[in-house]
Amino acid sequence: MPAHLKSLLILAAVPLLAACEYEGAAYLIEGKDHSISLVREQRWFWSSEVEQAVVVSRMPTCLRRHDIKSGVTGSVKMEVFEAGDYLWALKQGKSWYLAGTEKCEFQRWKDAPAEPPGKLVGTFTRKNDKLEFVPAEKAPVPIRPAGE
């Protein structure tokens, strides 16, 4: 095959490869050394399946990647709740997970409660066409009239 034809084929494939989703976002708990991250990888451009993993990190103690249920391209929403000391509940669709950052433990939560186990701290979602962690709205501070 002539070299110019090979170059043309490579250039034609670039837009297809660029359509693949490969990204991650982090919820920073106490700086960059203590976090929970969501990583999404679309292996094949023709498939809408996106492999997902949660990375639990509290350096220098631990750093672990845990595979979770696959998602679909372009759509993601995972809520993160405080569930105790060094414990976080993650909800994506009907799936619940528990992440412990003390020892980087992680498990699927089969018997999750009907109500969230704690305060919502934020959500992993697509914003401006990229995966981001969006912190939950902080409660507004009441405005007090002057003189109180």
Provide structural commentary.
By secondary structure, the protein is mostly beta strands. It has one domain. The protein is built from one helix and ten strands; from the N terminus they run H-E-E-E-E-E-E-E-E-E-E. It has one helix at residues 3-18; strands at residues 22-28, 34-41, 49-58, 62-72, 77-84, 87-92, 95-100, 105-108, 120-127, 130-135. The protein has a six-stranded antiparallel β-sheet with strand order 8-7-6-5-9-10, with no helix packed on it. A hairpin with a 2-residue loop joins strand 6 (87-92) and strand 7.
Q: What composes the largest sheet?
A: 6 strands, antiparallel
The counted number of beta strands is 10
Q: Given the C-alpha coordinates, what overall shape results?
A: globular
Percent range for helical residues? 10-25%
Radius of gyration: 20 Å
Structural topology:
Elements: H1 3-18, E1 22-28, E2 34-41, E3 49-58, E4 62-72, E5 77-84, E6 87-92, E7 95-100, E8 105-108, E9 120-127, E10 130-135
Antiparallel strand pairs: 1-2, 2-3, 3-4, 5-6, 5-9, 6-7, 7-8, 9-10
